[in-house]
Amino acid sequence: xxxxxxxxxxxxxxxxxxxxxxxxxxxxxDEYVTKKKWISAHAYADLVALCQFLPGPASSQxxxxxxxxxxxxxxxxxxxxxFTLPSFLILVLxxxxxxxxxxxxxxxxxxxxxxxxxxVVAQAILGMGKKLCPDKERLTxxxxxxxxxxxxxxxxxxxxxxxxxxxxxxYFLKSNETLPHESMHTGKKIFGxxxxxxxxxxxxxxxxxxxxxxxxxxQYLDSFYRAGALVFxxxxxxxxxxxxEVVPTRWVxxxxxxxxxxxxxxxxxxxxxxxxxxxxxxSASPNGWYGAIIxxxxxxxxxxxxxxxxxxxxxQLRKNQWIRKVMLGINASVVGILLAAFYNPVWTSAxxxxxxxxxxxxxxxxxxxxxxxxxxxxxxTVAVSFIVYQ
Length: 390
Hints:
By secondary structure, this protein is mainly alpha-helical. It has one domain (86-388). It is 75% helix and 0% strand. The chain contains 17 helices and no strands. The termini are far apart.
């Protein structure tokens, strides 16, 4: 009964949580803290702080952690399934539907989805920039990262820039923040160590297996696991990482990629569910549902291993000022990666004319200043695109 309650509570949130990671955390607080009282406000704030430090989708990791504290490992899995299932079904069905139509004959609304994605990403960058780059040192990290990636873009370079930014943070940034504390059930440290070890083993082992056995399944596992493992700063940063994995390999065309990304901002649930859409429309997948499930699990697995593995050690981690400074530098660099991705591929693949730019600035106005939910702005933009692009 307890596990069913965990699943259906998460499923309810997966059906109603529009607006992206920050909004998700507000929905979670209302449900888990205020209504269910499964976790105290202080413990919830402590948990959110931890998930901001770790790679992966913060809101999904918070849900997994609450499921873990409530119902053990099975509770964490059921919490993830419930929260992710609605967006998974919507995106896969959308992707399979696109596979049966001629994209060229539906260019108006597909282009509308790409254009509104520009406004959504622009708002995300502005919001993250205000929070993660409040001083000249961190703003400099972001700008330098962005400039370098605009000239030389690669996954290896992104990792290197994140590493150097973290080292810069140790020596030049200050962390004066204090975190609220209240203990919660997080499991044994020995199991936490095993999950963390498995995270790193898969990260380094999958590329080696791919060189030996280059099957479609192994390719998916390697590409999407690596993307999920390197996402510092929330779901939006997964865009350039996934784009670098699926578009150059011709698994997914850039048009299909941006159309799916636009839709993923219009539906409830985690943005990481976008990985299931890519698996469904991939030209390398023998079956859309099969590919979707593999890509979804591979993208979320790193965040699951990290949150379940890190929770038992959180008491020590949260007090370490060195780790705090590292994360300050990394988070600033994430803003720079987003800024570079905003130009290419987001802007360059969507904004071709004054009409496109007009829709972008109107969408940004509605999102940032009128505070309309992103799903409503996406729907409105797609509706207007049928008129504007005739």
